Amino acid sequence: KYLSILYDRLQRFHANAPNSDLTHSLRKLQTSPLSAPLSRPMVCQTHFDLPSIFPEQILLAISQLVPKWNMTLSTPKCSVLHLGRLKTRSKYTLNGLAISPSDTVRDLGIHFSKNLNFGYHITQITRKTRSMCNLMLRSFHTNSPDILMKAYKIYIRPLLESSTVIWNPTAIGLVNRLENVQREFTRRVLKRSRQPPLSYLDRLKLLNIETLEYRRALRDMQFVYDSIHG
After folding, report:
1. Rounded to two decimals, what is the model's pTM?
2. Which pLDDT tens digit goes with each residue over 175-209?
3. Beta partners for 159?
4. What's the CA angle centered on 101, arms 16 and 125, to 5 degrees?
5. Which domain of life is it from (predicted)?
6. What is the pLDDT of residues 10-36, one digit of tens each?
7. How far apart are CA 136 and CA 151, in angstroms?
8. Angle at which helices 2-16 and 21-31 pack, to 10 degrees?
């Protein structure tokens, strides 16, 4: 299904812009040995065509529907995120006011940057979870590792694992930055319970938890499995 949709998109590019640079590059892609299947017609059981909708039309529709819902929009709180390396950037307006461009936007709790690098998002969540770890250790006066780890699993770890399918990092620095939150917390838990210092892997075995990197990998595999099997 995905390949058939891609094939239909390539055909529309050829029909709409036969002499553009993008069309020439796509034709080279189709004739290359690595992408030979794209040059053959593909049969799809479901036939549909997505209409061409421009951002200006979406903004106009929103501005027309909002008064019907007895709501107001705050244009200064809106922002535009440009993706890619285009030198010319389109300008958009909402309610007659220009929407200012931004390098990062926050959508459903995730910070997206213009280069789709989630380093800024990881910095924000690690800063928040570190402060929550400090607050938790100051508020909980117990020395029981079980109680402290249960509180960690309820209040802190979900923040580190929210929507990881989208922003799961592959860079070692970002992976270590996330793991350091749990590494530091487990070290402080053992220190408070007056247990001898252990390595990070030994602390994980003692506290019966997994690394954050391992848990993110499991989430990715579960997402792929659910996507394939509906």
Report:
1. 0.68
2. 999 999 999 999 999 999 999 999 999 999 999 99
3. none
4. 110
5. Eukaryota
6. 565 555 544 444 444 444 444 444 444
7. 8
8. 140
